[in-house]
Design a protein that fits this description.
By secondary structure, the protein is an alpha+beta fold. About 45% of the residues lie in helices and about 20% in strands. The chain has five helices and six strands, in the order βαβαββαααββ. A six-stranded antiparallel sheet has the order 1-6-5-4-3-2.
């Protein structure tokens, strides 16, 4: 599971903090890391759009983004605008689940007694089955692939100054490499 360090890809961090969609295609790839170029080539993707999660207060820091990939060249801005409008419907549930997940993680750190840890983990498993970030982000990604002409989608949520991929899904086996 690759995590994108925000300070190593300043263009993405700037786009997210400015609440601007960042479009990347073959012609703009020279500004990006070797890793980004290699991943796109390996996944057979020609472009992607980084869509900041909506509803953040300016200057409040990076919350995350939705990355939409295309194997057909530049990502269509009209499709991205439509996807961004739909994303607004899901953002509250995703944000709430992410916050819940972060709170569970912090609580786990403070559990030092073995019996208490076992009970806590059981509780987390029950709760996560209902409010899991992974479940919610996977559903969102799958919905975007059904509704719009994208080949793959990934949800990344900020964690300790990085953007780990919570969920990545591909429309077909041809693009399954993106979802790994």
């Amino acid at each position: 599971e690759y995590q994108y360090p925000l300070d190593q890809i300043p263009q993405i961090e700037e786009a997210i903090n400015a609440d601007q969609v960042l479009y990347v295609d073959k012609s703009s790839l020279e500004n990006y890391t070797v890793v980004t170029k290699a991943k796109l080539k390996h996944w057979q993707m020609e472009g992607f759009a980084v869509v900041p999660l909506p509803g953040s207060t300016k200057g409040s820091g990076t919350e995350g983004c939705l990355v939409l990939y295309s194997s057909k060249g530049t990502v269509d801005p009209v499709q991205v605008d439509k996807a961004r409008d739909v994303l607004k419907l899901f953002i509250h549930a995703l944000r709430k689940a992410n916050r819940f997940s972060q709170l569970i993680e912090k609580e786990h750190v403070f559990n030092t007694v073995s019996d208490e840890r076992t009970r806590f983990l059981s509780f987390v498993q029950q709760i996560n089955s209902l409010t899991s970030v992974e479940t919610i982000s996977k559903s969102i990604s799958e919905e975007f692939l059904q509704r719009f002409d994208f080949d793959a989608a990934a949800v990344m949520l900020e964690e300790n100054g990085k953007l780990p991929i919570e969920t990545a899904v591909a429309k077909s086996d041809e693009f399954a490499g993106v979802a790994k």
